[in-house]
Prior knowledge:
By secondary structure, the chain is mostly helical.
Amino acid sequence: MAEAxxxxxxxxxxxxxxxxxxxxxxxxxxxxxxxxTFVTMAYIVVLNPLxxxxxxxxxxxxxGGLTDVAVAITAVAAVTALVAGVxxxxxxxxxxxxxAVAAGLGLNGxxxxxxxxxxxxxxxxxxxxxxxxxxxxxxxxxxxxxxxTAIPDGLKYAIGVGIGLFITVIGLxxxxxxxTGAPLITFGINGELSGWPIxxxxxxxxxxxxxxxxxxxxxxxxxIIVTTVIAIIVESxxxxxxxxxxxxxxxxxxxxxxxxxxxxxxxxxxxxxxxLFGAFTAIGAIAAGLAVFSLMLTDFFDxxxxxxxxxxxxxxxxxxxxxxxxxSILVVDSLAAVAGGAASASSNTSYIESATGVADGARTGIxxxxxxxxxxxxxxxxxxxxxxxxxAATPALVLVGFFMMLQIRKIDFSDxxxxxPAFLTIALMPFTYSITNGIGAGFISWTVIKxxxxxAKEIPWVMWVVTLAFVLYFLVNPLEALxxxx
Length: 486
């Protein structure tokens, strides 16, 4: 419908499709909003490769079977930008919302640090593809509502908080602030902050905090860029070098030196490097099924939460609390997970950073199309990613953990029936380096508490099924020993 005072003939088919005028927006506002969203979330093109492109699988190989870290990082940067660009454009065209899509932080950490070490990278990406397909089925059949209502709100929030702490720990470890060994955890080097790289991390963290506190748009990206420039200067003056057994105070991964090539054709060799059911052979059907479920759960609820938050911010939720074109949004988002796995970029999901574009005036999918086109342009500067040291990128990881931690205020810890399961969920994710362990402990303890309280009838059948699956997951080794299965 055309807005009041505007003749239908004056509204073009494109404007009508995107409800441009009826949502009170204009072309300049949409283009500007799309640019703002891109600047705010472009850090993922830098951060995702440093997570996905550097973690070895169980065979010691990098993503796609690569062995050279620089090549892996560049290749992941290219597919990260490609998938984000194509699926964000699709979100704009079909979802018609100012909602951008990219590799999900938290989800990529799970794939890199929890799944890949147990199997090959192809197997791990196959799990991502499967979880995306599962979400697509849930969306198309309407079953998503049963899953959504079955899980207590407190546990939903606890999963997000736990992932946030998990990501924070990863950031601190990669920066060298926290190191594992003997004793179990140490602060810095021998209990002290020592070496230029660690101080570069501290500078980057404080800078990014300051930018966020001032509500500067693109704070995470600006923080990464400025800290990287400082790191380049420090390396050129002091020749710190990479971290080795002899040089424990060196750079964790990338040594910040300007590459000889800044622009290059995108490297798409990672496309299609996934094994759909390989994980079921690698770690067993139960463990693989739970891994798929864990990713699906996180991705599914994160998308719903983000979508409603962005729609509310844009004042697009109707009087009945419904988001326009919600099913199309969820379909595109589930296909983004599939595409991310198929391209070895990890699961892609809707980004809460889209709120920055909305705050700048974006109200339609046109803004998302602009953001997507900018991601496609970013494919051609992938070599720049190799100049960013972990110490410059990990402050963003730590602060993403903070953003996810904000959900903890929605958990009622005074109610032990939800507080204890939520606590176990949150604590076990970072302490065991496993999101699956945290979710499993939370679900099982919640079900047990309901039973001992005499409230078993309040447990939805979905929770019974999932809890039983987690019990079997934790008892896999004892059961194999009991029945003589090797």
